[in-house]
Amino acid sequence: MKDAYFKKTLTFKHDDKTLQFRVSQELFSSHEVDAGSRFLLRTLDQLPLAEVRRVLDVGCGYGPLGLTLGKLDKQRTVLLVDRDALAVDFAQQNAELNNLHNVATYGSLGYDAVTERDFDLIVSNVPGKAGEEVIAHLVRGARPFLSPTGHTAIVVVPPLVPLVAQTLSEMADCVVTFKQSTANHTVFHYHFTAPSDAASQPAFASGLFWRDQVAVEYKKLKFAVQTAVGLPEFDSLSFATRLLFNLLNDLPDQPIEHLLVVNPGQGHTAVAAWLSRYPKHITLVDRDLLALQTTAYNLQQNGCPPDRIHSHHQIGLPPLLAPANLILYPLRDSEGPKLATARLHLLADQLAPGGTILIAANSHLISQVEQQVKKNKRLTPHKRKKRKGFSALSLS
Fold first, then answer.
1. Is 172 helix (H, G, I), strand (E, B) or coil?
2. CA atoms of 135 and 130, how far apart (whole Å)
């Protein structure tokens, strides 16, 4: 499954070091190391870089910032975190590719899962579409993780500069030691003059990702879903989701022992399946940590006991406690038929006898996948529903 995401290997030079980066089309800046990261790295000679022993890279992508800093001094310890499991996986691959051993990578929504402290340097290429409250939290939230002499260095696109400047100015003991701009990016270096005794406030638990509550009607079911910034379907249901609802309604009216939901998004289909079938076990699988946490939250808000929910932040599929009787799989359009079909082959191995897989996406992608499924003959297509360029298909 990992190899299916691979696009090419980039060569990147910084100072006297050369690194190789395996990249995926699905990750930011797969053509070359982006200009913002290159700009940020060039500015770090303004810091006492020789004294930096511990580095945290937040939103690491495939690792250009953190791994370059690790390559410059292999005695450094570098931690790279990202909410996308694909980014975490490729960052780990690239640490191994560049023979970097003092490196750890794992999934985290900003700082939420980071347990280490006393970093000498925190770096981040701040995502432009994360939402103002999340970005402000990312800027402020560095403080509890820094050593007493630690610095933060971030790069942002022009629309974020006023927000970042205001956030920094509102912290009385924050000192901006460097600010420089190009036409497309601005870099800030800053540190704090007073020690912090405050614990880090988790972004997800604090509600920083919340957008609106959406009322959903599914046949006789009516329920509410709390939507999150940065996930699709934050204000209304897509045609693909509505078609999945229709196929779900057409299934025999019987309990489901084990429900598996891949790419659950905001949690609409997972909640609908929970309220209509009350499965004893629900397994959620997604690259996006925010989607997993949002869906688990919405399931619990709609009465699902937490001990029935099992979340897996990864790009493939985990070993399941038991075969799944029902699998819901909204395809990612960006991943294309090759990846979708590869995942369906894995899902076929996880399907209980008599079980059903429901998939949905744009009609062209569903047609491509259906053709591959018919050739492979491991799954049998059944009912297909279409509406306005989208389709949903049931497989057994």
1. coil
2. 6
